[in-house]
Amino acid sequence: MTSMTARTIALSSIRRGCLLCIAMLLLTSFCLSQTDDPAARSDFPTRTNWLQYRFTANHDGVNPFETLLSPTTVGGLTLKWNFTAGAGFYGSPTVANGVVYVGSDDMNFYALNASTGAKLWAYTTGGDARSSAAVVNGVVYFGSDDLNLYAVDAKTGAKIWNFTAGDGFYSSPTVVNGIVYAGSEDNNVYAVNASTGVKVWNFTTGDSVKYSSPAVVNGVVYVGSWDHNVYALNAITGAKLWSFTTGLNIESSPAVVNGVVYIGSRDGNMYALKASTGAKLWSFPTKGILSSPAVQNGVVYFGSDDFNVYALNASTGAKLWNYTTGRTVHSSPAIANGVLYIGSYDNKMYALDASTGTELWSYATGKAVLSAPAVVNGVLYTASEDFNVYTFGLP
Fold first, then answer.
1. In sequence order, what are the residues at sequence separation of 6 or more whose Cβ sits closer than 8 angstroms to the Cβ of residue 109?
2. Rounded to two decimals, what is the model's pTM?
3. In a 10 Å sphere around its CB, with 0-12 CB exposed, 13-18 middle and 19+ buried, how is residue 340 labelled?
């Protein structure tokens, strides 16, 4: 082989190697631009879902993955779309894989395209559909005032099964380890097999388990009842572990964080109870509380009948701040990336700085906002008594 031929082969190999390196660099750059790992690219939003009421089974109401909306950007929220139904919305939106699931008092449970608001399907029940959905393994679970707990196909809305109780389901189901947990107006808490709809157990309280949704943590179900009690039940057997009595009926759903149960009562108190025994750690008095608390970074957030949104020290119950709206606050807060989102009977949806309570943004709807919002992927989803689902994003 001549020296010229050898040099030609060597140069050709170098060129091929360089082209391969360039191709690999381009491919790596593209993959990093598409990744959901904020450690790989911190300015790219982490994609997530809001799969059930209060985000997770412990009901803390916190989306820890939000990166686009923050105290500095949330003021730029604008309406992306709204969907109008035949009656008001009281349940909360669930967002899963690009679809919004929410029920209305027009007796329909809707699946809407999360980007456009276009209706994908509607499942018609025989009563109000105020229960918020849980979406697990391609199945949507929700309740209706027509006495039924439903499981329907998330893509088509086709019914998979229904479980019939003695009265309606306004309580939002929580799904853990293949079991659906929900309260009914027939005074019972039910555990139902998620695949078949067959009852696993029921626990009877002294009155309706109407709006309180069970939180399930470490094999224990926590829920409130109109009989004034908070209950802790064995998640496998339904056996009562303890109960704590408040002064009036309970519609708030518990949040269970760091071994403490936080729950509001119509008696006007926000309670902190030891999760293992039910012993009271502290209580904070306001007026009636229907709002379910959100808990993050040692702070408890909730709304009250005295028109205020409160932030309390989670360890002591001491007030950190309050923000006054125009009317009663029955909506439950959602926390994401330093921003608190909550609706009010004053017909507004609010975004507040979670650290200070300062108003960052608000939007006026046609009627009261009782629905708890969902915040995922830089988008705020909420619903109102004015028959509309609203979606807000940055321009």
1. 101, 102, 103, 122, 123, 125, 129, 133, 140, 142, 144, 150, 152, 157
2. 0.89
3. buried
